Structure formats: structure tokens, C-alpha cells
Amino acid sequence: MADNSAAASSANRAEAIIARRRAARGKPNRLIDEGSPYLLQHAYNPVDWYPWGDEAFAAAAAADKPLFVSVGYSTCHWCHVMEHESFEDEATAAVLNEHFINVKIDREERPDVDRIYMTVVQAVTGSGGWPMSVFLTPQRQPFYAGTYFPPQPVYGRPGFREVLLALAGRWREHRTEVEATAARITTAVRQVAGGAAAAQVPAQAPQSAPSELLAAVVDGLAESFDARYGGFGQAPKFPRPAVFTALFHHYRRSGSEPALEMARVTLHAMARGGICDHLGGGFHRYSVDRYWRVPHFEKMLYDQAQLAAAYAAAHQVTGDAAFAAISAATLDYLLHDLQAPEGGFYSAEDADSARDPEQPEDKVEGAFYLWRIDEVRAAFDAAGGAGTEAGEMIADYGLTAGGNTISDPQGEFGAGNVLYRARGDGPLPRRWRDALLTARNRRARPLLDDKIIAAWNGLAIEALAVAGRVLGRSDLVSAAAAAAEFARRELIRDGRLLRRYRNGEARHAAGLDDHAFLIGGLLELYHSGGELWTLQFAAELADMILAQFAAPGGTLYDTPGGQADLIMRTSELYDSAEPSGTAAAILGLLRLGRLAGNGHWERAARSALESVTGAAAAQPTAAPLLAVAADLAGHPPVEVVLAGEWEQTAPLRRELARHYLPDAVVVHLQPAAAAWWQQRHPSVAAMAEAGPGARAYVCRDFTCDLPVSTAAELARQLEAIAPATGRRAL
Predict the structure, then answer these.
(1) Which of 130, 131, 354, 551 has the smallest CB count inside 10 Å?
(2) What distance in Å separates the CA atoms of residue 55 and residue 689, rounded to the nearest whole number?
(3) Segment among 155-164, 280-289, 383-392, 506-515 with least mean pLDDT
(4) Burial level of 673, CB count in 10 A (0-12/13-18/19+)?
């Protein structure tokens, strides 16, 4: 297990902040009994907070007050700002407590609630974000919504107390109008978020032209591609890893050089930019500028996992060692800073941190990551480095005396510099990195959100398993297995998957994305580790999806049926920072059905795909993962069977790992597993009887090549599948 000292010290600082607030304010509110770090941060606010649930709903009905619902997460910079300005302010809290029943939600624990009301915010304001502020009737119907509200009117935004008093007045004096507005908004949101809009778009049968949707995604991305700086659009720029999946898949299918170039340029630009942590590894949430230089500094598990997998795939496709190095550095950050002792992975590190370790509440964004030139020189001096080395580093990484960041209006970045590759290529030299890390590790680390989310751990399992086999690192595969074992041990209760684990407690019904992302991780873990329990666990989760989330006609809902605290069920089709749960579920069911010989899962995947392909075709760039699913469903898979003992097949497995084969179904036909495969795939199991030694069978278009026993022979067969997209050094 990895060294968890950084995570432990960060968690200790979070506890210290809560202790200081307890000492300053005394009596906590109801959030003190919650497990979410975000809710606990607000447990000593003067606001009379409730967690989302029946107690809050009953209080609103009994008091005849509207609900004020504030949604955020622990590493959200503007959530911290609004807490400090408004929720810690006694006068604002008095207004909230007098006129509203106040509810605080961690969006990472309850993405189902967040998704519903974010749809309202986007419809009302034209955009979204966190903190999210919504006002509901006691029946949980929304009548007003926004994001961050400043304490006083500024930049065209009304002051928060001004909003509160105006809404309280409307509730008292114009109740009928407010309730009518709430009913109209609720009806509109049900049509959009519930999938009715998708059903109105004529479905396109994926079998008729399986690659058309994928080609439309790539064409749409080309229109917004920034050929000079990488990425799509101008600023801010967000990594959307599902885009890389689509680009590489289209290149694999068609040999499209533009698709490969868009992915290659963007991944290189991100790795050179300030969005990449050149010292500790990993990626920040997004770039505020076009150049990938100045990030929003929070680090999310889902970004690390998906980007590590994307860089590993880029290495497979291109042979570029730089991509392998970035994938490895990102996953090393996971193992060092986010891995829990139980085997799972924590959620995130904050964007904000303290300037002074002794003053943990005096936090600013980026304090842990920014450097003044004098700090760099001092770090090199302390490590015995020459002044010329410091000068080279300062030039290579774009440091200036006045700071190279785009400062916010308060100028809190000051003369701070973010590290980015201004000249040259390659990783930070080890000597420079060690000197700066030693100095940085004396700073106050950003606070850690130490809850473990099922969906994000599924993405981490997938990334570790993929990179482990591509990079030849068994430690990554072992970490993936430990996380999968943790999920099976701690997140399954009474035959159901739960979403969140913290301090020994698993809680909250898991969503479609939790199930689907775990299936994706388990399939890759089987590919890398060959253990049958991973397939069996994936099969259990697949059956849960069909029992809890599937509706007649193929629709897959984001939430299980029967959740009384939700005013609707949503069906999200589009990929944002995280992939669509629907798309991931379709891919998982399709791949698992093909691998295990289960036609029921594959038919369910096709039915779900047919129900949403029309909606995806209407906005193809919004749904790259659905396009990949449609393409896979429309083509027969490549099947690779590796027969023999695990140690015997090692050379064949290493050769297979060199090739980017997203449509491959890989079976590890070890003698101990022959009976299991005999029950499900008798024709596959028969391959074990061909004789001793390791053999590989490559099958496509329902025909198998002759078995081979050497890596060179296997390479020739694999390269014959798609000669236009063979691995190349760029």
C-alpha cells in the first residue's frame, strides 16, 4: 500500500479547522452528524442547516416556509467564498433562519439531486456551476435558482440578502404566483432531464451506419479545435477525456490523421501547461486561459483516472514515451496522495490552501502550487544546487519577477508563478524536482476530501489496470485489484451498491454511473489480471443495472426506481468532466455480454443504444462516448484468446498490450478457469485442449486465425487487423 502521509496530514488539517470553528461558535447545527467532509465544514455555521431528507421536508411543510438548498463540494473555491461571506455571517444567517428551511447538499454524495436542480439553474440563468443556490416549495418544486451570490450587489449580481428578502416577500404576498411558477419549471425540467426530449428525436439505427455518429463527433470537434494551443474552444478550457476516447477510436477504425492530431496536440499541450502539476504529478481541474497555463487548482480523482488512461492509450497509438511518462506520473500521484489504507481512492484535493501552516483558515487559491523566484532560488540553494541551475529552471518554466499568472481582481496570486513548460521538452529533471518538492512539502497542503466514491473508484480501477499492462507495471494492476476488492467488500450491502464510503460507513444509493464505471474498471482489471472474480463481480453489477435502472423501451435512468426524495428520474446522455452513465453502461453491458457469452446483456445494451442514438445524433459532440458505443455495437469484435498458465502467456500478454485494440474481447483461458468458460463459451473452452504451452487465438469476422505461440507471430496477426493504425513513433 502506498505512503498515505500526505493524505493523512491534509485530513488532520481539515479536522483542525472544524475544531477551531467549534471552539469559536460552540453549538453545531444538524450537519455535525453527517459523514460528508463538505457538510462537516458547515456544521458550525450560524445557519440552521439541515441535510437533504425527510426531516427538512417535514420542517418546511410544518413551518410553511420555502426551502433554500445550497449545493457544493468540499474542494470548490467559490463554495468556500460564499460560506465565508454569507453562511458564516450572523446577519445573513438570521435572514435565512427566519424565512427559509435551509438545506446543504454535497453534490458528490447526491449527484441525483444536483443533476435535477442544475438543470433548473441552467434553464433560468443560461449557465451553471457551484455553489448552486435553489429555492423550492415544501414539495421540492423549484421557483428560483442561481449559483454564487455575493454579499453585496456587484458585477451585475444582486446581493444575497437582497435576494433572500425579495423571495421571502414573494412567498408571503404572492404565493399563488410562486407555486404556479414552480409547477411550470418542474414540468419543463421533467421533459428535459427525464429524457422526454430525447424520445422526441427519431432514433437512428446504429447497425445501419455504425461509424457515422463517430465521424460526426470528430467533424464537430474539428470545427472548434484550437490547432495552435490544443483543446477545443478558447477559454476556459476543460479536459473532457471522453473526447480522447472518441478520437483514438475513430483513428483506430478509419485511420483518420486529423482525429489523431487533435488528440496528440491537446495531450501534449496539457502536459506542458500549468494545468499539469510538474512536481507532484496529476492534473488540476481546468485552465482559465486558452494556453492551458493558469489552472483552477483543485485536483479531482475522476480527472486523474481518465487522463491517465488517455495518456496510456496515446502511448499505445503513437509509441511516444512522453505520453507513457505522464500517465505514470499521474497514477503515482494517485498512489501517493489519494489512496486510502482500505484500498480505495479519496475524492479530491482542494484548490485553496493556507499561506501559513499555522493559520489553516487563511486560505487562498493555489497557495500550495505557486512560486516566487526567490523561493525557487532558496530551494535550489538548500539542495546544494548551483545558481545557474536555478536560472535554467526559471527560464524553462516561465517564471517572472512579477508572476506569470492571470491574477484575480483581489490580486491574491501576487508575484506567484505557476510552473509550465515555456521552453524545451521532457519532464522536470529529477534533481530540480526533488529540490522544489522538498520545499513545497513544508507548505500547508490543500485539504483532502477523504470520502470514497464508487463511480470515481471505477474510473481509477480502469486507469490503473490499463496503464499497468501498457506500461508493464504490476504495482498499478495490484492497486486496481485492491480498489476493486474494497468496492466488493465495503460498498455492497444487502445486494445493492452504495455510492459513498467514509470512516467505515457506506451510504447513499448508487447511481447508474457508479455501477457502469465499476463494470468498466472490472473489465479492464480482468484484461490485465485474468482473475475470474472480477468478471463475476461485473456480472453482479450488470444484473443490478437491468433490475434497478432499465425501463421498458430501453431507457436507462440515472437513479434506481422508488427514491421518494426526488421529484423526477433523469437520464443523462452527454459527457462532461465525467462520462455519461448511460453511455458507460451501454459499453459495459455490450463488452461484458460479448466476453461472457451472455446475449441478455448485449441485447439490453443494444436496446438502450437504440433509445438514445437519435438524441446523440442531434448533438454529436456532446455525446462522444455514445458514438463509441454505437460504433462498437455496429461491428463484430476482435476476439483474442490467450490459452495457458498465466506465467506462460506473459510474452503474449506483453505483445497484446502494445496494441491499441478498444474493440477487442480478451479471454484468459487458464486451465483453472476452463470449467467456467465451458459453461458459457464451449467453443472458447475447447481452445484449451489444443495442447500444452501458451497459445494465442485471434478471431475476427467470426473466423479465427491459426493459433500462435510467439510474440512475433501474434504481432503480425494483430497488425494485419488495422495496418493503417499501427504503432508509430512521432
Answers:
(1) 551
(2) 63
(3) 383-392
(4) middle
> What pLDDT score was predicted for residue 14?
55
Phi, psi at 143, each rounded to 5° = -130, -10
Say which residue the cell 494483430 belongs to.
718
Confidence bin at 12 (pLDDT 50/70/90): low
Q: Which residue blocks in 619-688 are alpha helix, DSSP H? A: 624-633, 650-657, 674-680, 682-685
d(CA 629, CA 636): 12
Paired with 669 in beta bridges are 643
User: Within 13 Å, how many C-alpha atoms sit on residue 536's CB side?
Assistant: 8
Average pLDDT for residues 564-574, to the nearest whole number?
A: 93
465 has a pLDDT exceeding 50: yes
Nearest partner of 266 among 296, 291, 302, judged by Cα: 291
Q: Quick one: DSSP state of residue 157? A: B
Q: Is 41 exposed, middle or buried (0-12, 13-18, 19+ CB in 10 A)?
A: buried
pLDDT tens digits along 230-255: 999 999 999 999 999 999 999 999 99
- Position 114 scores a pLDDT of 96
Order of strands, sheet of 638-643, starting from the edge strand that comes earlier in the sequence = 664-669, 638-643, 695-700, 703-704
339 beta partners: 345
690: which DSSP letter?
Answer: G
Cβ-based neighbours of 146, under 8 Å, separated by 6 or more: 121, 124, 125, 132, 133, 134, 163
What pairs with residue 665 in β-bridges? 639
Which residue is listed with cell 437512428?
A: 204
Q: Which spans in 83-174 are helix H?
A: 90-99, 111-125, 160-173
* Residue pointed to by grid coordinates 466476453: 595
Q: Which amino acid is at 544?
A: M
Polymer length of the chain: 730
Distance CA 62, CA 703 (A): 69
CB–CB of 151/92 below 8 Å?
A: yes
> Shortest CA distance to 565 belongs to which of 68, 116, 65?
116
Beta carbons of 129 and 207 less than 8 angstroms apart: no
pLDDT at 181 over 70: yes
**Omega before 131 cis (within 30°)?**
yes
Give me the helix-helix angle, 650-657 and 711-721, nearest 10°.
30
Among candidate residues 497, 498, 460, the one with its CA nearest the CA of residue 479:
460
| 562: exposed, middle or buried (Cβ count in 10 Å: 0-12, 13-18, 19+) | exposed
CB-based contacts of 152, cutoff 8 Å, min separation 6: 159
Give the confidence band of 658 by pLDDT, cuts at 50, 70, 90.
Answer: very high
Asked if residues 573 and 580 have their Cβ atoms less than 8 Å apart, the reply is: yes
Q: With beta carbons less than 8 A apart as the criterion, state whether 49 and 118 touch.
A: no
The answer to whether 258 touches 289, Cβ cutoff 8 Å, is no
- What torsion do the CA atoms of 275, 278, 281, 284 make, to the nearest 10 degrees? -10
* Neighbouring residues of 640: CB distance < 8 A, sequence distance ≥ 6: 656, 661, 664, 665, 666, 667, 696, 697, 698, 699
DSSP 30-53: GGGG---HHHHHTTTSSS-EEESS
Of 33-42, 359-368, 628-637, the range with the lowest mean pLDDT is 359-368
Q: How many whole angstroms separate alpha carbon 623 and alpha carbon 169?
A: 42
pLDDT in tens, 660-697: 999 999 999 999 898 888 888 887 888 877 667 899 99
Q: Which residue has the cell 493503417?
A: 724
